[in-house]
Amino acid sequence: MNKYYYDLHIHSCLSPCADDDNTPNNIAGMATICGLNIVALTDHNTCKNCPAFFTAAKRYGIIPIAGMELTTAEDIHAICLFEELDAAMEFDLMLQSHRMLIPNRTDIFGNQFILDGDDNQVGEEPHFLSNATDIMLDDAPKLVEGYGGICYPAHIDRQANGIISVLGTFPATPHFNAVEINRREKVDEYVSKYSLEDKKIIISSDAHYLTDIREKENFIALDDEPYSSALVRSRLFEYFKS
Length: 242
What we know:
Blueprint: E1 2-10, H1 24-33, E2 38-44, H2 50-60, E3 63-71, E4 77-82, H3 85-95, E5 113-115, E6 121-124, H4 140-145, E7 149-153, H5 163-167, E8 178-181, H6 187-193, E9 200-203, E10 219-222, H7 229-241
Parallel strand pairs: 1-2, 2-3, 8-9
Antiparallel strand pairs: 1-10, 3-4, 4-7, 5-6
Helix pairs in contact: 1-2
């Protein structure tokens, strides 16, 4: 077993609220400086910068995870992570029919740049990404699992778009194996208050700026013999699904 330091909630310049400097290569480079081993790219309601991030991560020796921050119909944020990049892109394609396609106002909300592996702009998402989809919270876990992924509530210790702030409590259903807490000092309080003892607690940054990315602190111990990045990714998803 070896420790793998992670940050599983990072936005690129495709998210309208993220800094334009959050390019795939800059994220991979900053993650390396921070001493991280596993990093997930989780833009709002899209995976379209994940292919570029996989290319960038390979240059820096980072194990990349394709993901997104899904906004449910209740306006709750949920982290969706996928073991395979192809599956993430299939999920991204499926999700387009569940989005409300409102033209993005870059002067108000920010840019939504799609980049290639060298950080060249190859497109721009024309519709605002951060608004709610029509996918209900109850349906999200099974939907993501159908693409080989895992789903869990994001930043439950926040007022904005947190499952507890929206619903007033942590619901018994749907079942989640994990939850994300943004502030480490809140872990004990939330685990005790909302009976989360059976959940895996993931502490991630929700980075919208490069300086938000977490330093080497939070880790998951994984069996990685004989080592390969694919094996580590597989073991990570076994950890989440167990």
